[in-house]
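Rotation project, supervised by the postdoc (A.L.). Task for the rotation student: set up a whole-complex structure prediction and record inputs and outputs verbatim in this book. Inputs entered:
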Amino acid sequence: MSSPVIRLTLRGVLARKFRILLTVFAIVSGVAFVSGAFMLTDSVKTAINSLFEELRGDIALEVRTPIAFGDEATAKRDPVPAALVSGIAAVPGVSSVEVNIIRESTIVKPDGKPLKTSGPAFGISWLGQDGLDGRTILDGREARGPGEVAIDKASAKRAGYVLGDKVTVVGPTGKGEFTLVGLTGTGDTSGGGGASVCAFDPATANTFLGAEGLADSIYVGLEKGASRSTVQKGIATVLTSKYEVIPGEQSAKETAGAINDIIDIFGKLLLGFAAISLFVSAFLIFNTFAIIISQRLRELALLRAIGASSRQIRLMILGEALIIGVIATAFGILGGVGVSKGITALFNATGAAFPSATITISTRTILASLFVGIGVTVTAAMVPALRASKIPPVAAMRPEMGFTALQRSKRLFAGAATLLAAIALLCIGLFVQPGGAIGILGASGLGAILLFLGVASLSTSFAAPMSAAISRILPFPIWPMTRSVAGRLASRNAQRTPRRTATTASALMIGLALVSTVAVIAASVQKSFKDRLQGSVTADYYVTSDGFQGLPPAFAEKLAVLPELGEVSPFRISTAQINGESKQIGAVNVEMGDIVNVKLTSGSFAALGKGQILVHRDPARDLALSVGSSVAVTWQNGTTSNLTVGGVYNDSSIAGNWLVSIDVLSQASTAPPVDFFIGAKIADGVSIETARIAVDKVAEEFPSAQVQDQAEFQKSQEDQLNQLLFIVYCLLIFAIGIAVLGIANTMALSVYERTREFGLLRAVGMSKRHLKRSVRWEAIIVSVFGATLGVAVGVPLGIAVSIALPESFVNGIQIPINTIVVVLLASIVVGIIAAIGPARRAAKLDVLEAISAI
Amino acid sequence: MTSTTPTLVAAAAALNASKIYGKDDSEVRALDNVTVDFAEGQFTAIMGPSGSGKSTLMHCLAGLDTLTSGKVFVDGTDLSGLNDRELTVLRREQVGFIFQAYNLIPTLTALENITLPLDLGGVDVDQAWLNEVVSAVKMESRLTHRPSELSGGQQQRVAVARALASRPKIIFADEPTGNLDSRSGAEILAFMRHAVSDLGQTIVMVTHDPVAAAYADRVVFLADGKVVDEITSPTSEQVLDRMKKLGS
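Outputs recorded:
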């Protein structure tokens, strides 16, 4: 870039500070979410890795059972006999050996309610500060007998317990009462990253946590100077091949990795949202530049006339975009710190106790932010810059000869071609589904982007008639805005520059298209779910856990013996490989057949009792299975069960795709059982009230259990879906916020452009109030236009996605008319909000100055 | 045919130049087979009623606009054979412009505006010449001001200085005094006269003001896209007289 170009660029930016500020703001938010996502995941991961490294303490080696496939996140390992300890202790170089028992244990608060945690609630076996792991005593001492417990300081504080208090803990075997003798911590923190930890002495842990002579793994410490690899080999020789011995940090890393995977998912969600807001921002940037360039028509033509080459003009515009991009990225990264801290604070406020992490800003974060921030800005400015470089120099004297607009027919053709390509890609992505998840997301994602671009391009052609139509029916068809001068002016202005009206509306179109897509999918899922639940759930009671690890089996056992209840069955989930692929296998009692109607098409539920397997019709079709065929199921511990198919069923909404009996599961795997939910029916002749009292009495012992009847269960499932939707809507509202900014920006620019015109209107007697109203009406026309387009694009897209979703999710299309009406009405509000600033500016114009403006 | 080969001393010339806007029924002949040349070192005024094609002729001579048929030359170069890049270089190096209004880039100072064509071409500023030009238009004390801080007359003086700064072969002025009061206008015209007489510059000016035209060495009259008359060493009375005849 030669120096005058740089100078012109810089001055150009400085002269348009306000406009550029608005543009910058749009990009800042996108970049903030990109960098925030990276910072958050980086910081939390670092913190979690160091937490687990801290927790590892002096554990040099760990003995456990191997898993045949899968990772730590879903691993259900078979336990290790605690009796192995003596053999391992005898290996030369071993200084100490401890059993590791980690089971679910919930702390009950003084008010009788369970302590909610944002991580798992653990009970562990702990020798105290001198033991191998990295836990420390912050106050008091470790638990030494059957009636004692030490709790992590953060949880004790949240629950409101102090040393010496009687604490109720619910473990796998039921309720127990303990005296709080110590408060523990990890490294310099007083908590465990959102988890609650109850530490018992090994003997108590063995009984209360239901380990019964089994350990989850065995920790090994080394003598000073002993070679770890030698000791590792030594231990391996005393163990059978059923067990493995691994370095302690490997285990720590695996556990941390399992948590990191969850954080990555969260990070990806943020990135996906950042992508949406950046895409919307791109429209705003494009529009701002297009308008700035048409305002500077004479200036640019003058430059061309006195000898600036078209390349220099192009570079100048792109240079301005570059500066905006750099500024926005810098603020975006700062904003990212805010986003990251804000989300951490939000989670901590709900009790997550994220490990206090210093924000990590890695080179990757900065590079990604720069790439995204500058890339989006410069790309969006590319077309306006190209247009600017084509301004003929003669326009310096004859501005009317300024732009040679793209021919209408050409644009229609380009728009239609883009739209067709988009629909083709969407169809391929949604219905052909090539290349698994990446193929589906890639093809339909690209399709969606093209869809928006195509509609945005085509909408230029009908912006004028649509604006005219909107102004004829708003606010009421019998009293349209065109009856007033202000309204007529607004309507004409929206029609005057259809290209601008269309681009401005496009940003809102995207936001609202996404909202209506989600709304259609959500309504369809909700309706399908409700229909299915009503058809398939025949249980009188559902017991689910509000904790992380499900319900202790003791609960189902206690329910089963209640005379008030009839059939009771737990539902367990295990991971296994079938035909080389990892599958979720459900394990139930035969009684489940009376509790949930899976709609068998062949075979019988009773086949489960004979050790057979039931299969949903989809995998049955894929693997060509029918009653009597044999399936090899390989469990995580490596055991393979050859099972006969005892039935094929239709409804997988509750039961999943594969069902075996609890006996089959527990014969194959000795991993500590956890119930995902329990279904129960009331015994014949027992009233609902009596049964409920009996069930609630049992439930008192298990505070994390939630007993629900059919209606409650249905409602809680719907609530969960609504919560998820709420988050998605919140994120989309942000994108809509950017679109509002875009409309405000465009309106502000056109007010500026029409300074003279407004001056004239005021001079011939238009009041400030009318002028304001005119600006407001125009903004409303633009937003309603955008919203209508958005709904027109979003609803079919939502229907397409709903059709493409597996039948287990959606089996009927539901269009949420209410939501759509609300969206359309809300767009009027959007227009009013966007017009606040610009309308005020228009009204503030000094009449004389405005008229004499060039 | 009235065609004559343009003389070699001409700084700019048009040969059988025609410019037609629109098509069929709405066809407008802005220039109709115009042949004219502008001698080096002369101050020429182009006059004519509105719609006579005087501005179009100037735009085409300056390489801002293209002809429908015929040729234009600047310093012996046929502009019809040049592409956009070559035209850009020609405007930057051979041609200077003074417009009626909106002559300056609002974001640059007066001095930066003056040296802009040189800066755009990456040419070093000849400081001695720049000083001479700046003092000729009496703008020494206001060089760091932005256009918005200058009066209309001052802005035009900066525009004159900018046109002179790159020592172009020819300067085209489009109603340079049209937006000014008579005193400021007279000043600008005096500067232009001075540039021709004392600095050897060639200037072609489009105007409809007989007083302005009287500053020129020669006046060319256009009507309906054709050259209809010319006077050398005009007085404003002579010019007014001819204009009246054209108008009738």
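Student's summary: The radius of gyration of chain A is 33 Å.
Supervisor addendum: The interface with chain B takes residues 2-5, 7-8, 11-12, 14-15, 298-299, 302-310, 312, 392-394, 396-397, 854 of chain A (CB under 8 Å).
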